[in-house]
Design goal:
Order of helices and strands: HHHHEHHEHEEHEEEEEHEHHEH
Organism: Rhodofomes roseus
Oligomer: single chain
Radius of gyration: 22 Å
Protein name: F-box domain-containing protein
Number of helices: 12
Length: 345
């Protein structure tokens, strides 16, 4: 029998190798690759299950490693009784929460009167929330009444409109947050208060800031209470448009997510820039913030047939309807769903 330490190393390496790379697209996987709620945050069970058949020790370690990331698609199923597999609440380090409907719709209908708690996960370190495709909902964090104080990393993906209001609950729910990752197509412009795809004259490169600069003005304001926040990673899509006449590298002031039009009109004006810099310096900042990184991807312009669009809308409607029935505990009929919480094959 191999030493337990060596078995753990073997299992960890195998599961790590079997885990797909995180998608780099800034739009939801369904919209970019014609897939629906594709889970790439952990290894698929079929790829690691053989290890659990070797011996009892292998099985225990394999389950522990595999459940370090818990994917939540159906809260009633996944969070109602964690005792089905003893140890899950202790093993889980990352919760990947799919939000299969509009939060604003749920709030307006009163469906979040009883909120979903993650407090059972005593070693939880990271929360990832994937927004619904083309969802205009606000404040995804309002799904939670409270979160474990152990959470130090938050990842928000595919937000249609990443307004500063999305970050308001973070100060109270995640006081120990150290890393914030916002992976989205649209950047928030603090000048016109809109979210738009950038239009630039040339391809931008990743922009790293190491002095705590680089955040949109209101992001700074709402994140300022987070005394442990050190790293923020932001994404933005762009299109090439020679008529804009400006590139981010041509600016003499830090670019902080301003849209293409505001960048061209205002951030090249020295008089305006001087006043704009003063306003940004007056804004409170997270005191420990050291690293802000903007990364970019060329905006995807895919054409879909009318038939594909109708099918997409139909799936959206069915998922939303089924989700709200589940949230409100009004239906015990799970016949439409497979074991993974998905409605279709």
């Amino acid at each position: 029998m191999l030493p337990v330490e060596l078995i753990r190393e073997i299992v960890f390496c195998h599961v790590d190798d079997a885990t797909p790379e995180k998608p780099t697209d800034l739009v939801h996987p369904y919209l970019s690759r014609n897939q629906w709620f594709d889970d790439t945050s952990k290894a698929y069970w079929d790829s690691v299950s053989s290890l659990s058949l070797v011996s009892k020790v292998f099985r225990e370690i394999t389950l522990e490693v595999w459940f370090q990331t818990l994917v939540v698609r159906e809260p009633k199923v996944h969070l109602a009784d964690l005792s089905t597999i003893p140890g899950v609440a202790q093993w889980t380090r990352v919760v990947h929460w799919f939000n299969p409907s509009s939060v604003s719709e749920g709030l307006s209908l009163g469906h979040f009167s009883s909120r979903r708690s993650l407090m059972a996960f005593v070693r939880l370190r990271k929360l990832r929330i994937d927004a619904f495709p083309s969802d205009h909902s606000h404040i995804l964090l309002e799904m939670f009444e409270e979160l474990p104080l152990t959470v130090v990393e938050l990842e928000l993906r595919y937000l249609e409109s990443p307004s500063p209001q999305q970050l308001v609950p973070a100060a109270t729910l995640l006081p120990n947050l150290r890393v914030l990752d916002m992976h989205q197509e649209h950047a928030w412009c603090s000048l016109c208060n809109t979210c738009n795809v950038l239009r630039l004259k040339d391809d931008p490169v990743s922009i790293p800031y190491t002095n705590g600069d680089g955040l949109p003005k209101l992001y700074n304001r709402y994140l300022a209470p987070l005394s442990h926040l050190r790293t923020v990673r932001l994404s933005a899509a762009y299109t090439l448009d020679l008529s804009v006449g400006v590139g981010l590298q041509d600016l003499k002031t830090p670019w902080r997510g301003e849209c293409g039009e505001c960048t061209s009109l205002h951030l090249t004006d020295e008089t305006f820039v001087s006043d704009w810099e003063a306003k940004n310096k007056e804004e409170p900042h997270p005191p420990s913030l050291r690293e802000v990184t903007w990364s970019f991807a060329l905006a995807q312009e895919e054409e879909s047939s009318e038939e594909e669009y109708v099918d997409y809308v139909d799936k959206v409607t069915r998922v939303r309807h089924r989700f709200w029935k589940e949230v409100d505990h009004n239906s015990d009929d799970d016949s439409e769903w497979d074991y993974d919480g998905r409605e279709w094959d």
